[in-house]
Design goal:
Largest sheet: none
Structural class: mainly alpha
Low-confidence stretches: none
Strand content: under 5%
Radius of gyration: 34 Å
Shape: rod-shaped
Order of helices and strands: HHHH
Distance between the termini: 70 Å
Number of helices: 4
Length: about 120
Amino acid sequence: MAAAAATYAVKGHNGPRVITNYFTAADFLERGFMDGLSRLMEEMRKESGRIADEMQHADVYQPMANYTSIESPDFSYDKFASTSQEPRAHFDATVEKERKKMVVEQQARDTEVTRRLGGAE
């Protein structure tokens, strides 16, 4: 549509007419571009709003179950691990070993002295 309006025959030595036609075509093309850009921006604004609405209700913003925290006594890698992972037994045992090690370390820091000094975590 814009290309057809921008095609003009340049005949003779009528310079002012050629210049006027050039600027008219340039204005037409610019208005078409800006109109298309405005429509695109409006569509993007609508889509952005729709995505924001969906994200408010996404599961990722919901509180996680207690058993997913490594500090929870209910923690088990089995309860949230990927089932597509082949050597699950290896990971389960390794994660459980590290969790127990962490609990022992925390208990070792939880002494009468650290409690009185306010350093127990």
